[in-house]
Amino acid sequence: MQYRELTIENFDKAGLVAYRQPFVDDDTFYEDLKLITTLTKRLEKFSRRGQINLRLVFNNFIVANNCFDRMFIFKSLFILSKKEYHNDIFTFIRFFTGFEGPLYINEDLIIDFSPIHFNLAFKNMIEKELQKWVLREH
């Protein structure tokens, strides 16, 4: 089951529905849910400063994907962030997952995954960082 409308007000409850781990206790669940808020903050930090630690972002994203339904993560990134950061979040999602949307979050927020919203500078930064990692491995 999935919440059709995701809002700040129902974020925790929707997270519980999207949780893919065996429920152990509230602390573990909220620690896992915090991965999504941390990921949002890291992407917003890039938007503000132009700097990003991609290894931490990748790690947060991968672990969050192990815990929650992917669509819940996508929608959460948008509702937890300010609208001014949505193009970078869109770019991150599009680049790493290939998701093409549109993404219905709630009646007030529908994300059009149009190429005009793609942040090429962010994409280029990600590609450059990935190339560094590949070169270090060889």
Can you give a write-up of this model?
- There is one protein chain.
- The chain has 138 residues and is mainly alpha-helical.
- The chain has one domain (11-137).
- The protein is 62% helix and 5% strand.
- α2 runs antiparallel to α3 (54-67) and α2 (26-49) packs across α4 (70-79).
- The chain starts with 10 loop residues before the first helix and ends with a helix.
- The model has no long low-confidence stretch (mean pLDDT 88).
* Rg, Å, rounded: 15 Å
| Unreliable sequence segments | none
- What is the topology, as strand order, of the major beta sheet? 1-2
**Major sheet description:** 2 strands, antiparallel
- What is the beta-strand fraction? 5-15%
Structural class: mainly alpha
How many H/I helices? 6
Element string (H = helix, E = strand): HHHHHEEH
Helix content: 55-70%
Oligomer: single chain
Q: Summarize model confidence as the mean pLDDT.
A: 88
Shape: globular
Question: How many domains is the backbone divided into?
Answer: 1
Q: How many DSSP-defined strands?
A: 2
What's the N-to-C terminus distance? 44 Å
Sequence-ordered SSE layout with sheet pairings:
Layout: H1 11-18, H2 26-49, H3 54-67, H4 70-79, H5 86-97, E1 103-106, E2 109-111, H6 120-137
Antiparallel strand pairs: 1-2
Helix pairs in contact: 2-3, 2-4
